[in-house]
């Protein structure tokens, strides 16, 4: 049974095209009737729209096999008085979901990803947090890759803000316990006996996705087709108990092992 990441694992960070072997891997799981969930931290499109985009690329799986942070957001964050930071696409998704964006007296600061956070935005966020607003991240990615550049991910930004203000934070998407528990419950509709120790999770985010999954008892597979150019950039610097169980270049190499 599998949990499978999307960006950098199934599709390229640079042009969103399918990575070598990724469509064939999904096809093989379907043919073998192997239970799996496709888990993404994407927040720039509504859930049904991003699922439809993946389907249009040739990833033919049912929506019941799909989970993203937006699908849990309403149960985790009130729609009232939210200061949200991220791409314009993300902010528009929030508005369509009925969230009231408030940059004067917010109750919640909600962080997603973009490559051009400004110092003034960080200053504003810090003021909100020191005034009592709660801090929530849409996910806890370590690195955000775009246009052949690597930026601090939401996880890195959350930790910076927490250090600056001594506030705690919550995470909606990967690698939060709530997100993985929801994914497990959905997987159990395919196999009622599924448990975390039965699951292998595949991702290019060895710190953000795989570290939390490993602590929950999952087997972990790190692919170097996304955020990192090689395993040597990051794996030797991880704590031994958080190092991935397996390392592959891409989904094609994993497929060849099945």
Compose a concise summary of this entry.
This protein is of the alpha/beta class.
Descriptive terms for the model:
33% helix; 258 residues; alpha/beta; six-stranded parallel β-sheet; four-stranded parallel β-sheet; single chain
What do the pLDDT scores average to?
96
The poorly predicted ranges are none
List the strand order in the largest sheet.
Answer: 3-2-1-10-11-12
Distance between the termini: 12 Å
Query: In angstroms, what is the radius of gyration?
Result: 18 Å
Total strand segments: 12
Q: What structural class should be given to the helix and strand makeup? A: alpha/beta
Instruction: Give the topology string: H per helix, E per strand.
Output: EHEHEHEHEHEEEHEHEHEEH
Question: What's the helical proportion of residues?
Answer: 25-40%
- Number of helical stretches of at least 4 residues: 9
Overall geometry: globular
Largest sheet: 6 strands, parallel
Beta-strand portion reads: 15-25%
């Amino acid at each position: 049974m599998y949990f499978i990441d999307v960006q950098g694992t199934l599709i390229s960070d640079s042009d969103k095209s399918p990575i070598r072997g990724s469509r064939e891997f999904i096809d093989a799981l379907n043919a073998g009737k192997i239970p799996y969930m496709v888990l993404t931290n994407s927040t720039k499109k509504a859930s049904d729209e991003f699922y439809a985009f993946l389907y249009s690329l040739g990833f033919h799986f049912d929506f019941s096999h799909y989970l993203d942070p937006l699908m849990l957001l309403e149960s985790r964050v009130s729609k009232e008085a939210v200061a949200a930071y991220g791409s314009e696409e993300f902010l528009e998704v929030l508005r369509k979901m009925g969230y009231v964006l408030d940059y004067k007296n917010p109750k919640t600061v909600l962080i997603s990803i973009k490559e051009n956070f400004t110092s003034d935005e960080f200053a504003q966020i810090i003021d909100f947090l020191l005034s009592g607003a709660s801090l929530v991240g849409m996910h806890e990615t370590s690195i955000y890759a775009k246009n052949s550049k690597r930026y601090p991910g939401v996880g890195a930004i959350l930790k910076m803000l927490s250090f600056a203000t001594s506030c705690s934070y919550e995470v909606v998407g990967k690698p939060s316990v709530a997100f993985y528990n929801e994914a497990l419950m959905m997987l159990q509709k395919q196999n009622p006996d599924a448990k975390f120790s039965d699951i292998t999770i595949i991702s290019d985010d060895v710190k953000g996705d795989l570290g939390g999954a490993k602590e929950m008892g999952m087997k972990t597979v790190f692919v170097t087709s996304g955020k990192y150019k090689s395993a040597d950039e990051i794996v030797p610097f991880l704590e031994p108990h958080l190092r991935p169980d397996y390392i592959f270049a891409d989904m094609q190499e994993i497929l060849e092992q099945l």
